[in-house]
Known about the structure:
Shape: globular
Number of helices: 7
Number of strands: 10
Order of helices and strands: EHHEHEHEEHEEEHEHE
Structural class: alpha/beta
Amino acid sequence: MSAPRAGFGPVPDDDAARATRSWWDQNAAEYTAEHGDFLGAADFCWGPEGLREAEARLLGPVRGRRVLEIGAGAAQCSRWLAREGAQVVATDVSGTMLAEARRLGRETGTAVPLLQADARALPFAAASFDVVVTAYGALPFVPDPWRVHREVARVLRPGGTWAFSTSHPIRWAFLDDPGQAGLEAVRSYFDRDPYVEIDADDRVESVEYHRTLGDHVSDVVGAGLRIERLVEPEWPPGHDGVWGGWSPLRGDLLPGTLILVCRRD
């Protein structure tokens, strides 16, 4: 048995898939408790900067539209969408996260249909949805995000919208540190090795993948989608929260989140 360790390096795809589901299953309740007040029980937050869909309106009117949220976690975004009049379905790979979603649905009085599913193999017919969304869901945790984009393109109706947020690619050149140490570039932006944590039994415990901005664009366009907006939320005045490597110090200097709004023509 060796000591737990973390770093950057290649990971077998099967190990990554198992680790991702296992990590969220084990940490769902803790994650929801830690970030629940910031995210809201029925609110649509695009990322740690606190940009809300109620303010950004990147999706346009959703009333009466059929919406799919992938990588939904506890489905906070889906409940907000439902309250806005959308017909929502929420999916996540973690059954325990979906249990948190059911709990919050009962507590808020806004329950939405929930389905456990891998975003790379969605169990829906073609052209089933007007909008597909995710806020930091699925894409950072799979080695083959182009499969997610292709599945989204498949289930979208012509003219439909695909909007997603993820870690801004530039963040990967810097230490994941909210303090002064996180302001110095320490690795190549072009190094695509994922960040990996290994437990004491030498098992992959968690994996997060890095894609350059060019990779994201190529993945979306390769799926037959058109990019309509690229949004880099600024850190707002008065927001003093810290979330991992996100902080006011770094947020004043570096983008932390990337949002792409895409269309199926």
